[in-house]
């Protein structure tokens, strides 16, 4: 994008029409590359979806600016330059909101250039009336800047109201404000519980846009990390069901959802309830076998924790993950061994599943059950061995 910016600056400074206005526009735009360079130096920030989307918006505006500066046939050049400058300012405002987690100095650089873009006028002798589109963008960007300027003056009640009833855009802003409260320690844990923020976040998790869902889960993980009391507020089955739905989403949301469920799994009520949620274990097994190493690692840990319940172990086997079942065959009580062997005898096994069960060590404990067990144990193990051998 830096190359694109340099091209726009060059075209603007060499324009043969309205040379002074285009030159001023070029001088403003020359302040953008240092900001882009600083972003490029921080790969962690660049990986955030909100940053990527704001940069895509900025790149689109720069492409339009390039077309404008190359054109020699503009009907209203001054007005078009102003509108284009405001549009770029609007995109910088979006970048400003997305960059709340970076340093204050960097946000100030973005904010300063954004205000200069939005306030730019290239004909001091006359009053230019911006198009409705430009006015809308200006109003949007003003709101963006007010987030940065007024955040310290917003009460937690205002934040909760927008969290509960705001549009997707207002909700995104209120999430950022809530993060600021938490980061600056203006919002203590008791207040979070009293104001039912956790319940509101889970409710919005079901209905909001992808970027907001990701932010919600990340914020819930931050809250849960504080202490077990916070986790106890997240054990309701409808809350957990909302998180499980995120296991089916894109990779980043899926990774955070697995992480949140793992974070909550030291609460006994969560362990009891997760396995009952339709599709949860199937999705965890799919994630375990997926290509995201972080999500796979967390899914493996969570499945291991859930396998302490023998019904969960059976569900895992039905989903093609047999290690917990085999572990019960090796070390479980006689009743659990019979339960697992009986289940194994009834499963529809592919050749790959049979190979996996053999590699996981299912044969030896089944043979031992047949040789040393009582009648019920002998019958269940024999049926399981027959299913494995056919």
From TrEMBL:
In terms of Gene3D superfamilies, this protein maps to: Leucine-rich Repeat Variant (1.25.10.10)
Q: Which parts of the chain are coiled coil?
A: 48-75
- InterPro entries from the entry? ARM-like (IPR011989), ARM-type_fold (IPR016024), U-box_domain_protein (IPR052608)
Q: What's in the keyword line of the UniProt record?
A: Coiled coil
Q: Which PANTHER family match?
A: OS01G0948500 PROTEIN, RING-TYPE E3 UBIQUITIN TRANSFERASE
Q: What is this protein called?
A: U-box domain-containing protein 44-like
Which organism was this protein described from? Trifolium medium
Please spell out the taxonomic lineage of the organism that makes this protein. Answer: Eukaryota, Viridiplantae, Streptophyta, Embryophyta, Tracheophyta
């Amino acid at each position: 994008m830096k190359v694109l910016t340099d091209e726009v600056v060059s075209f603007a400074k060499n324009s043969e029409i309205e040379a002074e206005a285009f030159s001023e526009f070029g001088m403003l735009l020359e302040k953008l590359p240092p900001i882009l360079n600083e972003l490029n130096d921080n790969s962690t920030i660049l990986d955030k979806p909100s940053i990527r989307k704001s940069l895509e918006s900025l790149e689109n505006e720069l492409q339009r600016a390039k077309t404008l500066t190359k054109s020699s046939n503009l009907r209203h050049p001054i007005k078009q330059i102003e509108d284009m400058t405001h549009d770029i300012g609007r995109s910088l405002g979006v970048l400003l909101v997305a960059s709340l987690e970076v340093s204050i100095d960097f946000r100030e650089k973005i904010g300063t250039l954004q205000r200069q873009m939005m306030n730019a006028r290239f004909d001091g002798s006359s009053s230019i009336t911006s198009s409705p589109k430009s006015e809308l963008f200006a109003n949007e960007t003003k709101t963006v800047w007010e987030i940065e300027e007024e955040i310290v003056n917003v009460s937690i009640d205002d934040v909760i109201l927008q969290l509960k009833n705001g549009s997707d855009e207002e909700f995104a802003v209120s999430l950022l404000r809530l993060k600021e409260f938490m980061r600056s320690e203006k919002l203590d844990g008791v207040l979070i519980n009293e104001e039912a923020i956790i319940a509101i976040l889970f409710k919005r998790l079901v209905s909001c846009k992808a970027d907001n869902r990701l932010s919600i889960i990340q914020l819930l993980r931050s809250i849960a990390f504080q202490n077990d009391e916070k986790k106890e507020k997240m054990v309701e089955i409808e809350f957990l069901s909302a998180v499980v739905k995120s296991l089916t989403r894109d990779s980043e949301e899926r990774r955070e959802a697995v992480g949140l469920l793992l974070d909550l799994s030291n609460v006994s009520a969560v362990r009891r309830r997760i396995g009952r949620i339709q599709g949860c274990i199937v999705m965890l097994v799919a994630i375990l076998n997926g290509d995201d190493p972080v999500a796979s690692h967390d899914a493996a840990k969570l499945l291991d924790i859930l396998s302490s319940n023998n019904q969960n172990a059976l569900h895992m086997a039905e989903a093609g993950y047999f290690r917990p079942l085999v572990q019960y065959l090796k070390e479980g009580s006689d009743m659990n061994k019979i339960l697992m062997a009986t289940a194994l005898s009834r499963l529809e096994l592919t050749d790959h599943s049979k190979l996996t069960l053999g590699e996981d060590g299912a044969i030896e404990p089944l043979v031992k059950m047949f040789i040393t067990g009582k009648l019920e144990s002998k019958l269940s193990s024999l049926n399981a061995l027959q299913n494995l051998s056919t």
